Amino acid sequence: MIPAGHLPADDETAAGLFGLSVSRYRANKTWEQFPTTVKPLQRQGAKARIYDLAQLTVVARNAKATKEAAKKGEVAFQEEIPLISRDPQILVAGAAVPTLKDDVELQAGDLLDRDEAYAAIPEANRPAFSTWLRMIAPPSGGAKTEGPEPTQILSGNNRLWSYGAILDWNSKRTPVHATGHGYHRPKGTKETKPRAHVVARTEETRRLLAENPGLTNEDLAARLEVSVRTAEKYRAAAEEL
């Protein structure tokens, strides 16, 4: 997560700050030479590297000053690297589907990647993760994506959504919840009969539990491609059958 008020710096931006080509930056693994106070902003497991632009700008200036001072046999003055007050790691490590940590409080200007944006959708309206991936897949033929439009696109088509954009998109769409509650139903509908796919998911849960009673809610969530909380609801429903 890129905290509100901070700008992201991907490999292309970082390479430019250090006067390197992207290929040379990657070959040198320049990021391994960053001070320990400079932490990556991307979630664990993400392919793209993202750092804070303000931090890298200072790191690059300090590196240049050190190199020039060394030529003169001098010690260079080092600028203080600005700190990031909020923890960018907002997801539960190892969760079956992207899940926010309990103590996370997002701000409208926070920039989120694909997994973080999914976890930030209010649970009452959150689709299955596989559905979310389909919804945000880049459209073809001029069609418009079902999901929210990215707030910013970095090199390598690394798309980011602001938390505010996620909330705005969610407030304007027909709720699509993984359990089927409100699934494509017009506002004001009095329909209470469970949808067919909800019944099917419940039956699938019952079958999985019959085959392996030891399955945890995390196991069920992974197999059903839903959140752990939703898996708990399916388990409760299945156990009543």
Structural topology:
Layout lengths: L7 E2 L1 H7 L4 H7 L22 E2 H19 L39 E2 L1 H7 L8 H7 L16 E3 L3 E5 H10 L23 H16 L5 H8 L3 H12 L2
Helix pairs in contact: 1-2, 7-9, 8-9
What does this 3D model show about the protein?
- 39% of the residues lie in helices and 6% in strands.
- The protein is mainly alpha-helical.
- It has 3 domains: 8-71, Multidrug-efflux Transporter Regulator, Chain: A, Domain 2 (Orthogonal Bundle); 111-172, no CATH class; 196-239.
- The strands form 2 sheets. It has a 3-stranded antiparallel β-sheet with strand order 3-5-4. It has a two-stranded antiparallel ribbon with strand order 1-2.
- The chain starts with 7 loop residues before the first strand and ends with a helix.
Short key terms for the protein model shown above:
three-stranded antiparallel sheet; mainly alpha; 39% helix; two-stranded antiparallel ribbon; single chain; 241 residues; Multidrug-efflux Transporter Regulator, Chain: A, Domain 2; 3 domains; 6% strand
Strand arrangement across the biggest beta sheet: 3-5-4
Low-pLDDT segments, ≥5 res: 176-187, 189-193
What fold name stands as the CATH topology of the largest domain?
Answer: Multidrug-efflux Transporter Regulator, Chain: A, Domain 2
Structural class comes to mainly alpha
Strand segment tally? 5
Order of helices and strands: EHHEHEHHEEHHHH
Q: At CATH's second level, what is the architecture of the largest domain?
A: Orthogonal Bundle
End-to-end gap: 41 Å
Shape assignment? elongated
How many helix segments?
9
CATH class designation of the largest domain: Mainly Alpha
Q: Give the % helix.
A: 25-40%
Number of domains: 3
Strand content: 5-15%
Largest sheet: 3 strands, antiparallel
